[in-house]
Amino acid sequence: MTRICALSAFVLVSLLLGAPAMAEPVFPPGLRIGLEPPPGMVASRRFSGFEDPERKAAILILDLPVSAYTGLEKSLSTKQPDLANIARRPFPFKNGTALLATADFKEKDGTPGHKWFFLAKPAAGPATGFTAFVTIQVPDSQRAFYTDAVVEKVLNTVAFRATPVEEQLGLLPYKLGDRAGFHVHQVLPNGVVILSEKPDGNPYGAAYIVVSVVGGGPSQPEDRPRFAQDLLRSSPVRDLTITSGENIRINGLPGSELRATAKDASNAPVKVVQWLRFGSGGFMRIVGVSPTAEWDAMFPRFRAVRDGIGGK
Question: In this model, does residue 300 exceed pLDDT 50?
Answer without folding.
Answer: yes
